[in-house]
Amino acid sequence: MTCTRRGAHYCQPRADRVVTFFARMLVHTKGPLVRTAFVLLDWQEHEIIRPLFGEVLWSPEWQTYVRRYRIAYIVVARKNGKSELAAGIQLYMLVGDDEEAAEVYCAAKDTKQAGKVFEPALRMVQLSPRLSKRLVHIKNARRLVDDTSGSHYEILTADAKGELGHNPHAFNLDEVVSQPDGTLWEAMTTAAGARLQELCYATTTETNDPTSFGAELIDEAERIQEDPARAPHVFAFVRKLPSNPDQLDRLHRIFPGHPDLPASCDPFDEANWKWANPALGQFKSREAMRRQALEAKAEPVKENGFRQFQTNQRVSQVTRWIPMDLWDANAREIALTPDWVSARLAGQRCWAGLDLSSKLDLTAWALLFVDGSVLWRFWAPESIAGYLDLHTGGAFSQWARAGWVTLTDGDTIDYDTIYDDIVTDHQRYGIVDVTYDKWSGEPVRQEITKRTRLKMIESDSTYMRMTPPMNELMRRLKAEELAQFGNPVARWMADNLECKSPRDDPDRIRPVKPDRGKSGKRIDGMPALLFAIDGAMRGLPQPSIYESRGLGMMG
Questions:
Q1: Over the stretch 44-58, which tens digit does the pLDDT of each residue have?
Q2: Strand (E) positions, 111-244?
Q3: Contact at 8 Å (CB) between 192 and 69?
Q4: Strand arrangement of the beta sheet that strand 199-204 belongs to
Q5: DSSP H or E run through 196
Q6: Which of 133, 370, 407, 435 is the most buried (most CB within 10 A)?
Q7: What is the pLDDT of residues 84-123, one digit of tens each?
Q8: Using the 8-state DSSP alphabet, how is residue 272 labeled?
Q9: What is the 3-state secondary structure (H, E, C) of 374-395?
């Protein structure tokens, strides 16, 4: 079959080829479907395989159509056939993708874990009359060799970094959550690029460590699933039971009408199981999951394991907080420059929030106006720009050149620049008061008061002070009552924002600042906005009796 469509499109013949390969060349290797043809289930076929292999675009470099996706993330609960599906993909990439001298690898924390993908692939070969004739198994090396195309498929482990191949056609990292760091993934994804249409993909369940490489990868997969334009070359299939109502609302916005959407965040409600377990009732036993749920209810020590592995729910007090579709819906308009709306807001009432960092990092100032408009200023020493460029794809320096960030000379922030800019805003707008983090320091408060006579109100980032403004921010986002005018620095920070709740009271929340020394993430503009919202929630000051009654009525 040939495809006559042009431009970026879904190529049905390409997708049909992979689906047919599974059904005609492969068999299931275990479970109730063992030794039967590997006919993809609806969700495997239509939500993973067809889009992953069928979406194509024209390559000016190679002068042919190539697959759109070069990286894929598949995140589902345990026992949903991740390893068998990965094995089938690897075998297709080895013998079915028309690639000469293909190097195909699967990797995991150790040989035993990597074998969970290799062994199903080997068994599929042994049970296939055609593949068993074509492929040779080199047992000691745990390698499959295709002499016809000069290709091979082998396993790698996290401690084999020095022996990695440098030209992979396909690479699968299994159970990412077991990886100590991202070294292996980075080594293989950066080694790719010399093939016509290579594919690197990661398969995993959820993690309980919010600071791990696994959490970072899963969070990125969720972001891409929400906003595919974020990384058009990356495919994401993420099925997790949400941890809070905001995440639940987000799912219903992204997948309107999907029949398997959860109704709540309750891991023990059977109505919620299908979302994280698309194979439930097909080759994953519902009855077995019921037994595990009963045990988890009876023994609290088992609850976290059930939530993490069976419902793919992150067992952590820290979660991503702002859905970017909500954030983007509150742009109102896209400002072409930082001063785009300054003139029209001149003289209007607003509340200010100040989040002052150390002298070596970012400082943020936010102004929230009565109509919901938000303006920010960001300051940073020029010495940090290169470091943040590494974590923003060079965007940070672009933002600085465009005026969204003010870089001051040297290794530390020039506080006089901050004070001068605040004086400018004080003269331009009607600032009601300034809410600031008490960790900013008394000298800063004194200097701002001295220069502006603005009312300064101390705050902090505790649960007591942060819960009300965070709830108010989410309410405003959902009601589209903010206008952030597409500020790119604020968007980056909103995307980085995580919140934390105490285990005994999930309704209380506060922002979590990332480890500045280990992460390129920054959120400073969000606490500044929350401080400004805190001010707005206190309201405008009561009018003077002279304003309401007039001087002539006194006496």
A1: 999 999 999 999 999
A2: 135-138, 143-146, 151-157, 170-174, 199-204, 234-238
A3: no
A4: 135-138, 143-146, 151-157, 103-108, 170-174, 199-204, 71-75, 234-238
A5: none
A6: 435
A7: 999 999 999 999 999 999 999 998 777 777 777 789 999 9
A8: G
A9: EEEEEEEEHHHHHHHHHCCCCH
